[in-house]
Amino acid sequence: MSTPDDKLTLDISKREGTINLGAGPSSLPTSVLLEAAQGILDFSSTGMGLTELSHRSGTFKKVIESAEEDLRKLLDIPENYAVLFMQGGGTEQFSGTALNLLASHAIAHPDYVQQHNGQGPALDYAVSGSWSAKALKESKRLGGNAKAVFDSRKLEGSDGKFGIIPPTSTWQLSGVDGSGKVASKDELPAMLYYCDNETVDGVEYTPAFPIDQLPKEYAQNVPIVADCSSNILSRKIDIAAHSIVFFGAQKNVGPAGVTIVIVKKDLIARDPDEGVSNGGPRIPTTLAYKHHADANSLYNTPPMFAIYASGLVFADLLKSKGGVVGASQRADMKSRAVYDVISKSQGVFAATVKDPASRSRMNICFRILARDGKTPNNELEERFIKRCREKGIEQVKGHRSVGGIRTSLYNAVSPEQTLVLVDVMKAFAKEVQDERRA
Ligand SMILES: Cc1ncc(COP(=O)(O)O)c(C=O)c1O
C-alpha cells in the first residue's frame, strides 16, 4: 500500500508571515488549526478522522459536551440557559429568533392574535447597522409586526449612514408611552432585537447595549435578543439579562458552519406547533429550538468539524489566553492603538463612525482623505492596501457598501500583529503628509 509520507509535511511559513485582518471568515489561532488538522486525519488515535465518525458516537459526544462546558465557563452561562449548536448561519437566526419567540408568545397569550384583528405582537428592532437592518427586513418579510425602535440612518447629522446610536430616551419602544412608562404589559413586544457589533459598518455598543437604561418594566418583561456574531468572546456579556444570545462562528469562534444559540430554557416553546391554532407561526423543524434542546444539538447531523474546531478555540482561550477578560483587555488595547493613529493623522485618515463612543473594537472602518481633508480618495486607499500587502497584511478593503478600509482585529489577531498595522498606518500618514507639504 502506498503511504502518503511525501504529503505529511505542512508548509505554514507563508502563514507565519501573514497578518489576516479579514472581517470574516477570519483568522484562527495557528495552534488550534494544527491540532484540528491532526484531528481531521486521526482523531484521538481512533484511526479515523473526526468528520468520519458517527455524530452519535461516544467520541463525538465528548467533543460537543466539552465545547459546551468550556463555552459555559467562558461566558458564565447560567444553568437555566440552553446552548444549541445549530446551522444556517447568523442569517438563519434572523428568522429563528422571531419565529421561536412568536411561538412562545402565542402559547403564553392564546387570545392575543384574535383580540388584535389577526395581528401578532410587536417585534422591536434597534437598527444600528446593516445586519440589524437585515434582521428587521426578514422579520417583516415573514409577516411579523416588526418595527425599528430607532434607525441610525434616519438621525439628524447621520447623512443617511450608520454611525450614531441615539439615547434610549428617544427610542420608540412598543408598549411604552411618551413618559417612558409601560402602559399595558399585554402590549409589550415579543422581543427587542439588537446587533452588538455591526461588522459591516464598524458600530458597536460600548461598553454594552444599554439594557440598564430601558424602562425597568420593559427590560424585565420583553425578551432581549442579541446578535453577537462578530464580538462574542471579546468582552463580558450579561447572559442573564438576555433571552437569546446568538452568534455565527466565523469570527472569534471557529470555522463557518456552526451557529451557537444561547437561549433561556423557559422561553423555548414546549411544543413548537402548539401556538399555531392561536395565530402563532409554524416553525420549520430544524429551526425550532425545542428539537435541538431536547436532542442536545444532535437532532440531525451537526456541523461536526466546525463544532470540534470551535471547541479547540474555547479551550485555548480558557486555558492559555486569560479567558474573556484577557481577550477583552487585548481588544481594548489593539483598537485604541489603531484609533489613536487615525485621530493623530492630521486629516489623512478619518473614522467612518462619527460618534467615538460607538466605534467598534473589532472592525475599524476608516477612509483615506484627499488634500481637502473631506473627500475619500480611492487612489490613496488602493495605495494603502498595497502598503499593507507589502508588510504581509491582508484583507483590509472595506465592505462594498461602506467603502474605504476595514481592519478587523478579532481575537486571533495578536497585539504584535496590530503593532505592525499601526506602523504601516503611521508611515503611510507621514508619506501622504510629506507629499502634501512638498
Ligand atoms: C453581525 C453579523 N450578523 C449576522 C451575520 C450573518 O452571518 P452568516 O453569514 O453566517 O449568515 C454576519 C456575517 O458576517 C454578521 O457579521
Given this structure, which CATH class of the largest domain is correct?
Alpha Beta
Ends: how far apart?
70 Å
- Over all CA atoms, what is the radius of gyration? 23 Å
Largest sheet, order of strands side by side? 2-10-9-8-5-3-4
* Overall tally of structural domains: 2
Task: Please indicate the percent range of residues in DSSP E strands (runs of 2 or more).
Answer: 5-15%
The averaged pLDDT comes out at 96
Shape: flat
Strand element count: 14
Could you state the order of secondary-structure elements as H and E? HEHHEHHEHEEEEHEEEHHHEEHEEH
Sketch the major β-sheet.
7 strands, mixed
- Helix fraction, binned, reads 25-40%
CATH architecture classification of the largest domain: 3-Layer(aba) Sandwich
Bound molecules: pyridoxal-5'-phosphate
Low-confidence blocks of residues: none
The CATH topology of the largest domain comes to: Aspartate Aminotransferase, domain 2
Please report the number of helical segments: 12
Q: Write the CATH homologous superfamily of the largest domain.
A: Type I PLP-dependent aspartate aminotransferase-like (Major domain)
Structural class: alpha/beta
Cofactor: pyridoxal 5'-phosphate
GO cellular component, one term: cytoplasm
EC number: 2.6.1.52
Catalytic activity: 4-(phosphooxy)-L-threonine + 2-oxoglutarate = (R)-3-hydroxy-2-oxo-4-phosphooxybutanoate + L-glutamate; O-phospho-L-serine + 2-oxoglutarate = 3-phosphooxypyruvate + L-glutamate
